[in-house]
Amino acid sequence: MSMIRDLRAVVRPSRPAPRKETGAYDTTRDPASSSAVVDCAVYRDGARLETPKPLTPQEAMRHVRRDGGFVWIGLHEPTEAEFAGIATEFGLHPLAVEDAVQAHQRPKLERYDDSLFTVFKTVHYVDHDRLTANSEVVETGEVMCFTGRDFFITVRHGGQGSLRALRHRLQDDPELLAKGPSAVLHAIADHVVDGYIAVASALQDDVDEVETEVFSPGRGRTPRGTDAGRIYQLKREVMEFKRAVSPLLRPMQLLSERPMRLIDPDIQKYFRDVADHLARVQEQVIAFDELLNSILQANLAQASVAQNEDMRKITAWAAIIAVPTMVCGVYGMNFTYMPELHWRYGYPVIMSITVAICLGIHRTLKRNGWL
Length: 371
Prior knowledge:
Elements: H1 7-11, E1 37-44, E2 47-48, H2 57-67, E3 70-76, H3 80-90, H4 94-102, E4 108-112, E5 115-125, E6 138-147, E7 151-157, H5 164-171, H6 174-177, H7 181-215, H8 228-245, H9 249-257, H10 265-331, H11 346-367
Parallel strand pairs: 3-7
Antiparallel strand pairs: 1-2, 1-3, 4-5, 5-6, 6-7
Helix pairs in contact: 3-4, 7-8, 7-10, 8-10, 9-10, 10-11
């Protein structure tokens, strides 16, 4: 147990560990290069094998077959032709290869003969000054992992989810890397879920912001459903986050509960911790979704209430204006015999009565909250 005592510190350091530059650590493929391989290294007894020049996957595998250890190959958005040689060399299943090349896969865990195929959705929070109806809140990528007895292959899609820092941290703990490919799989799973926790915390601030604005004092007296677009956009982003989190829970539970030949027993128990953290994030995401539903409904209800208030005010003023309109209509008729037309005090009396009636109606409507 002493060999993995500091496992949590390795995959979740409080500050970056000193880095030991021992090779190429590009996070994405070089556009000028014809190869999708961004790093390929052999690890023996937890240490990276020093070579005079970068190894090809075939050369790395020859080292492993001759002297032991395992090879870790990192690829970024390979084409089918670029991945074909690696798939043949390591005996990867065609269905898993197809998923890894095409991307846009659902998080999952599949077993193929002597390898495990795992799909992770990486999620990155996009900083923004103010949430708008067009704001991008979360950005997603993918990491596919092939875990074998003596190899570990990662295939990344998208600009997020770099494993550069994680590889450095693992190399700084040879005792952990000596546990083999399953230690790398756990470190990546824990790294991805840590990203989910950070995104959930940032999303909490956005949800709190729109909730405060919708339910702030006097919100119901201001126009008029203007936050609906922002709320709906945030809800869409939460749904995208949910599609990354929810399907991954079952694979993490399987890795923590079901004995597997390719997973070291000392490493397997740590997948339970990953599954627990993932379950907590899933609960948060579900709560965000339900809360945003309520906020959106409340916002639309406030808009309806505001429209009803506008209609009441319009109706009230129409009732007041109807009085002088009726009086003017009566005295605008061209009858010959209208006694008031020849009365000296007819005009001031009629105007006084009209004003008095209008004031009475106004007072009554205002007392009843229509004005």
